[in-house]
Amino acid sequence: MAEHTPEDKAARAAILERGCSTPIKTATGVWVRCGSRIKSRCESCAELYRGDWAAIARSGVFDGPVDQYRFYLLTLTAPSFGRVHRVPREGGQQGRCGCGVTHTTKDAALRGMPLNRATYDYAGQVAWNRDAGVLWDRTRRRLRDRWESVEYFIVREWQDRGVLHVHAIVRIARGEAPAAIELRDAARTAVAVSKVDGSVVEWGAQAQCDAFRANGDGAKTIWYISKALNYVLKDVATDADDVPVAVWRHQVALGDAARRMRCGVDCVPQDCSSLVHQRYGSRSQVVSASRRTKYRSGWSFTGLTRTVQRRLRREWWESQQAEAGADTSAVSPAPLEDLAARSRRELVARGWAAP
Prior knowledge:
The protein has two domains: 1-37 and 306-355, no CATH class; 61-81 and 121-299, no CATH class. The chain is built from eight helices and nine strands. The protein is of the alpha+beta class and 355 residues long. The two termini are 19 Å apart. Helix content is 35%, strand content 13%. A five-stranded antiparallel beta sheet has the order 8-3-5-4-9, with helices on both faces. Helix 3 crosses helix 4 (180-188). A hairpin with a 5-residue loop joins strand 1 (24-25) and strand 2. The chain has helices at 6-17, 43-59, 122-146, 180-188, 218-229, 245-260, 306-324, 337-349; strands spanning 24-25, 31-32, 69-76, 151-158, 164-173, 191-193, 200-202, 207-212, 287-289.
């Protein structure tokens, strides 16, 4: 959107000064942060996003009567959609890959790439990404059927092969807290049915659950939380400097499968503008937490949410501007709910993919 006045330039400059690299002007003429969660697109907004969720994560561990609860880090993965290259990570054990080569960390870009793209189930993988939210909802319900006090904080990570898996910090009252292996098995064996095509959706065989104490080994608790939150800023693209052609071909094939996939019961893929078709099938939020209700505490003991954080941030900013006698009508410190939604619609209209 073109700038026509000195006020326009000043408002945009104010957002740039606060670190956002790509401010957005809404239809109402207000400049807002881009709100991207991807560090490579906007480091400032991604860090703000991470910081908000970090505070929420910590509030569900440290801001309440932690001695009354037991905490777990639960990891759930997607099923296999075809054999892929096995490449060790830094410090990991080397092993012979299915391609016949013993890979080293120098082959990191090949990690998760299909051994045979012709037989790899790309359609199945993007459909699983699409239905992963339904599967987690069924998993959440199953856990609460067994342990009524379950609350959670969840991070969805992109694996190298372009499929989601889940890291969830789970809190359960000590009076009914199960062994970690029991919680793992209850979650891993949950099954859902796709609302789009009626297919069965389930987790992969690989799952892990570790228990930890918030008021015991504090450093370990922080490490668990940091481990989950570090995945927030990742993009789907590989981090390798020298990207093999096989990686780009794999991502193109995933993108093509996602564009052909039905994202809803009434979806006509070639006419559908849903961003699900641009996200390898994913429709889930990257980070979320259980909410407070009339009968439940929710994840945050203090009721902290991103809406509350944005409101407090805006109130603080406006108070600072008022003390300085500045005009706040043309610039916003952070995207409010309605402004953010409008901004993303404008991005889509321009042909850009909103993060």
